Amino acid sequence: MSTSHEKPHIVYVDANASSLTQFRSLGLLERLGSIGVLTVHNGTPESAADYVSVVGSAQVVIVGGTLPDEVLSSAPRLALVAYVGQGASNFINLRLAQDRGIHVANTPEYGNSAVAEHVIALLFSVARRTPQGDRHVRAGLWRPFPSGMEISGKTAGLIGYGGIGSHVAKLLGALGMKVLAWNRTPVIDEDSNVEFSSLPEIFERSDMVSLHLALNEQTHGFITGELLDRLRPGAMVINTARSELIEKFALEDRLEKGLLSAGLDVFGQEPPERNDRLLSLENVVLTPHQGYNTPQAFSAMATMVVENIENFLQGKDFHRTSL
Question: Which parts of the sequence belong to the D-isomer specific 2-hydroxyacid dehydrogenase NAD-binding domain (predicted)?
Answer without folding.
Answer: 120-291
